[in-house]
Design goal:
CATH class of the largest domain: Alpha Beta
Structural class: alpha/beta
Shape: globular
CATH topology of the largest domain: Rossmann fold
Protein name: TIGR01459 family HAD-type hydrolase
Order of helices and strands: EHEHEHEHEEEHEEEHEHEHEHE
Helix content: 25-40%
InterPro entries: HAD-like_sf (IPR036412), HAD-SF_hydro_IIA (IPR006357), HAD-SF_hydro_IIA_hyp3 (IPR006356), HAD_sf (IPR023214)
Number of strands: 14
Strand content: 15-25%
Strand order of the largest sheet: 1-14-13-12-2-3-4
Number of helices: 9
Organism: Albidovulum sediminicola
Radius of gyration: 19 Å
Keywords: Hydrolase
Largest sheet: 7 strands, parallel
Number of domains: 2
GO molecular function: hydrolase activity
CATH architecture of the largest domain: 3-Layer(aba) Sandwich
Length: 282
């Protein structure tokens, strides 16, 4: 868990998998330093993929980043858990998932990109669904008790659930709230079956690796704010990892942050102040 700077790491590695929320984005916008830093990192001529537990597909994520001031040319793509899940679902239609299956998609902003064009039939309630896709959380509006009541009928029928955003917590304008991963965990507690797609699970890393042919795993650096997701997932994929001091655990001091990483069994190779080339003075 060596202190480092983004400038040092940019010169040291050959490709970068960069988290969105907590690294580039706050709960309400972009970190002031992030758009310029991402452009500067891309100027090294090395591939940069934004690896995100967003349940939305790549295109909506890219559109949001553009609205927030990020140059589209500063990264290859957003490899989101939503995009990885869409690819997985597309290959299952007609195999272990019947065309026309009723699907309840739960996402922020009413996003339905997870199932668009797949021949599934969206429904308004999980009680009517043959498949549940948890792509986001309304934890800033609904309580876990609300979700318990909403999901219990489907759990009793063992309706399969695909969690396309495994984050247990999320950044919102109101502060940290529970994420889609916590809702999926609740569904498991109710007896429902859940399949997880996104960090730290392997599928999203396999999808990203396809875009980085010829680059050895030990030459790829994962940058994120979550030991449980970014660090653990990157390490399992064989990549080096760097933890930023911003994001979900920004309020922790270095001792507490180190203890958290130890407790999670996910100690990063490096710790950097933020996703910035000119860190603020301590």
């Amino acid at each position: 868990m060596k202190p480092a700077t983004l400038k040092e790491l940019a010169a040291r590695f050959d490709a970068f998998l960069v988290d969105q929320f907590g690294v580039l984005l706050t709960g309400s916008g972009a970190y002031d330093f992030a758009p310029a830093a991402l452009s500067r990192l891309s100027s090294y001529g090395k591939p940069v993929i934004l690896l995100s537990n967003s349940g939305k597909r790549s295109a909506p994520n890219e559109a949001r980043l553009t609205r927030l001031g990020f140059a589209r040319g500063s990264y290859l793509t957003v490899m989101s858990s939503g995009e990885a899940a869409y690819s997985a679902l597309r290959h299952r239609i007609g195999a272990d998932l019947a065309p026309g299956t009723a699907v309840w998609v739960h996402a922020r902003d009413g996003d339905q990109s997870n199932v668009a064009g797949l021949g599934l039939v969206p429904v308004d309630s999980p009680a009517d669904a043959g498949l549940i896709v948890l792509a986001g959380s309304l934890g800033d509006v609904l309580t876990l008790d609300d979700y318990r009541a909403l999901l219990a009928p489907a759990a009793r029928r063992a309706v399969p659930c695909l969690c396309t955003n495994p984050d247990m917590e999320m950044l919102t304008p109101q502060g940290i709230r529970f994420g889609a991963g916590r809702i999926a965990r609740l569904y498991e507690e109710l007896g429902g079956p859940v399949e997880w797609i996104g960090k730290p699970h392997p599928l999203i890393y396999a999808e990203a690796a396809r875009l980085l042919p010829g680059i050895a795993p030990d030459r790829i650096l994962c940058i994120g704010d979550s030991p449980a997701h970014d660090v653990a997932g990157g390490q399992a994929a064989g990549y080096a990892t760097a933890l930023v001091r911003t994001g979900l655990h920004a309020e922790l001091d270095d001792t507490s942050r180190a203890a958290l990483c130890e407790n999670e069994g996910a100690v990063p190779d490096f710790v950097i102040p933020c996703f910035c080339f000119d860190p603020p003075e301590a």
